[in-house]
Design a protein that fits this description.
Radius of gyration: 19 Å
Order of helices and strands: HEHEHHHHE
Strand order of the largest sheet: 2-1-3
Structural class: mainly alpha
Number of helices: 6
Strand content: 5-15%
Distance between the termini: 33 Å
Helix content: over 70%
Number of strands: 3
Length: 141
């Protein structure tokens, strides 16, 4: 992997770890399907009250089905294929523009000290995760 690409991937990990971002790719659809299905079934059986009960039970079931499937975003980034990393790198380098750095420590310091640049890179990273990976993003409290 190219030194600069490696630095940008590590920067992505630092940005997402700093904000404690987690993602799930496949589990969110399963949870939503469970909640929606049980709300629908509850509505058929019990009318408006059945929708409420079915939705609540479905939500709990969906939570249980997807528990443990959220991964920290740095882990997801490091598991990207080379093609996916290249796409993310290209997106972020377009934002970095002519920023010059010698190592990851300098790049991280430059980005973290510039709130506008940090915000733009974080937004691009989250946009990539939601559009390209079709993942759901969650912030850990």
């Amino acid at each position: 992997m190219c030194h600069r690409m490696d630095d940008v991937m590590k920067l992505c990990c630092e940005l997402s770890a700093h904000q404690q971002i987690q993602t799930t790719v496949k589990g969110s659809g399963k949870g939503a399907a469970a909640a929606g299905s049980l709300a629908f079934a509850g509505g058929l059986v019990g009318g408006p009250l059945g929708i409420a009960v079915g939705g609540a039970v479905g939500g709990l079931l969906g939570c249980w089905l997807t528990s443990g499937q959220f991964k920290p975003l740095p882990q997801v980034i490091m598991e990207l294929t080379p093609r996916q990393q290249q796409k993310l790198y290209d997106d972020l380098v377009a934002i970095l523009g002519d920023v010059q750095w010698t190592d990851i420590a300098q790049l991280t310091a430059l980005v973290m000290s510039n709130s506008s640049l940090k915000h733009q890179l974080t937004a691009a990273l989250l946009g990539y995760v939601t559009k390209e990976l079709q993942a759901e993003v969650q912030y850990v409290d």
